[in-house]
Structures are given as C-alpha cells and as structure tokens.
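Backbone-to-sequence.
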C-alpha cells in the first residue's frame, strides 16, 4: 500500500486499550517503512494498555485527518486489527 501511495500522506496509529501515534500524516514513505518494521506486540505495554479499542483508534485517526484536511481530496482510514473491540468507544 505504501509503495503505491504516490505523494499521498499516510499516518500510522497503533492501539490496544490506548491509541499511540506511530507517525503523524507524512509523505516521507521511507520513514513509514522503518516505523512499520518496528511495530510488534511488545511495542505496547499490555499490562498498562491491554484490550482492543477499535473505536478509540478510529476516533484518533479521523481526528488527525480532520485537522489536516486538504479540500477536495478523499481521505481514507485502513483499519488492521487482530480481534474484536473489547475496550473504549463502540
């Protein structure tokens, strides 16, 4: 997906019970590849932030899109999760 994104901005948000900005919206795709490689289960302290808060992650990412909206441009959120929402906003 990143390789085909052209000059489009991409941000990465990781989440469990809490949502963390791995990278804000950027066109620097080389840093996105580096940061993607660093994502693992161990990145988040699951004793402090266990669960799956899909709604919260969607709110965080959509807020970022709204704050940096480019008029007349489509915006998309792609959600990748390992399970059902078990925490936070539905």
């Amino acid at each position: 997906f990143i390789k085909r994104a052209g000059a489009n901005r991409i941000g990465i948000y990781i989440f469990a019970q809490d949502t963390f900005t791995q990278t804000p919206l950027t066109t620097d795709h080389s840093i996105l590849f580096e940061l993607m490689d660093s994502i693992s289960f161990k990145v988040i302290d699951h004793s402090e932030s266990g669960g799956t808060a899909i709604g919260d992650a969607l709110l965080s990412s959509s807020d970022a899109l709204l704050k940096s909206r480019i008029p007349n441009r489509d915006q998309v959120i792609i959600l990748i999760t390992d399970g059902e929402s078990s925490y936070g906003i539905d």
